[in-house]
Design goal:
Helix content is about 50%, strand content about 10%. With about 375 residues, it is an alpha/beta fold. It folds into 2 domains: about 250 residues, Glycerol-3-phosphate (1)-acyltransferase (3-Layer(aba) Sandwich), CATH 3.40.1130; about 55 residues, no CATH class. Strands 1-7-6-2-5-3-4 form a 7-stranded mixed β-sheet, with helices on both faces. The mean pLDDT is about 95.
């Protein structure tokens, strides 16, 4: 559909020509060399130029790229909840957001491993300014979220994206991933921005918004990394916020964060998909009288689902105990694990700057603080 051309991913009939145009790009060669280190360039190049669908590209190439990332930069991915999903049903996955590339990539790996429909995923257009990255993202079934628009254009862009997401779910039977808020969580506080839900509701063809939300099958997703490879990179923005200053990104900051998130050490990773929101939406519908209150209630439901199922690691408990000067969770980590965390803190941030130290600790400790609101962890 022409109306979506400004934001959509590639159609399958466009894919082969794009591959032929970027196969010799240095970044493509680097990606394929990383993914298939023992395969001659001529071999993967020939295979690449014979790809005609996004599905083939994801299953034959990107799936193995992500698996290689896991092998090189983590101690593995564990998952839970996927057995509750139907293999022929598209879902709208709303996830907490930790890593620019990996959150959605790991979800797709897990979906493929469970024989489920892989997603089309939202990506900020600020992250794909380079032509190669834009092409690669559209080959990965990413659609664009326009950033930095004035109010009138933002409203039009939000409506278009809402209609496209609904089109993918209903017409293409395609699952969709979207973050619960714009940008990655910098302080460990995962919360759903009501604007995301308002955007989704713009495509509603139902008299009742909750009926529409039931129709698009919302599934909250929690993802947690034992170590955030970009933890130190987030500190300048937190420092600016503490001073009530406007943070201005460096020219290549997004790309540095993207690359660091992919190749940096994460140790263990866990992803949980929650139940499809259904009964909860019926309750919201019966108790809330207007759309704003309904959206507020749905945001809280998604938050609670993500926080309740968020996998806590020793790093989270260590940071909590250091931050609050307690040994409340000392049984949840070893002396060696604490020493490693303290060493990381020492190496990655200026220990003389209390704001930075507190920000670094809070990033890891806040998931514990938030989960304690709902469960004994």
């Amino acid at each position: 559909m022409l109306k979506f051309d400004s934001i959509r991913h590639y159609h399958d009939f466009e894919v082969n020509a794009v591959f032929k145009s970027i196969a010799n790009h240095p970044m493509m060669k680097a990606l394929m060399g990383f993914t298939f280190p023992d395969t001659p360039e001529s071999e993967w190049m020939e295979r690449l130029k014979d790809v005609h669908t996004i599905q083939d590209f994801q299953e034959q190439f990107i799936y193995y790229s992500v698996r290689k990332v896991l092998e090189k930069s983590s101690e593995g991915l564990t998952t839970s909840g996927f057995d509750k999903l139907d293999k022929d049903t598209p879902y709208l996955f709303i996830s907490n957001h930790r890593d620019i590339i990996l959150d959605t990539s790991l979800l797709n790996v897990a979906l493929k491993d469970h024989g489920l429909i892989m997603t089309s995923s939202a990506v900020g257009d600020n992250l794909v300014q380079k032509s190669f990255l834009l092409a690669l993202s559209k080959l990965n079934r990413n659609f664009l979220v326009k950033r930095g628009l004035p109010p009138r254009e933002l409203l039009e862009s939000s409506k278009l994206m809402s209609e496209y997401i609904y089109y993918l779910l209903r017409e293409e039977n395609r699952s969709v991933w979207i973050a619960q808020r714009e940008g990655r969580t910098k302080d460990g506080n995962d919360s759903t921005h009501q604007g995301v839900l308002k955007m989704l509701g713009m495509a509603s063809d139902e008299a009742e918004l909750m009926d529409f939300f039931k129709k698009i099958r919302i599934v909250p997703v929690s993802i947690s990394y034992e170590y955030d490879p970009t933890d130190a990179l987030k500190m300048p923005q937190l420092l600016a916020k503490s001073k009530d200053e406007i943070y201005i990104k460096e020219k290549n900051e997004d790309f540095v964060n993207l690359l660091s998130g992919v190749i940096g050490q994460k140790k263990r990773i866990h992803m949980h998909v929650c139940d499809v929101l259904d009964r909860e939406l019926e309750e919201v519908k019966s108790h809330s009288c207007n759309n704003n209150k309904q959206i507020q209630a749905v945001a809280q439901i998604i938050d609670e689902a993500i926080l309740r199922t968020y996998k806590l690691w020793p790093t989270n408990f260590i940071a909590y105990d250091i931050m609050f000067n307690t040994d409340r969770f000392a049984s949840r980590y070893t002396v060696k694990e604490k020493q490693l965390f303290e060493r990381r803190l020492e190496l990655r941030v200026d220990k003389e700057n209390k704001v930075i130290v507190d920000g670094f600790l809070a990033m890891y400790a806040n998931p514990v603080v938030n989960k304690l609101k709902f469960t004994d962890v």
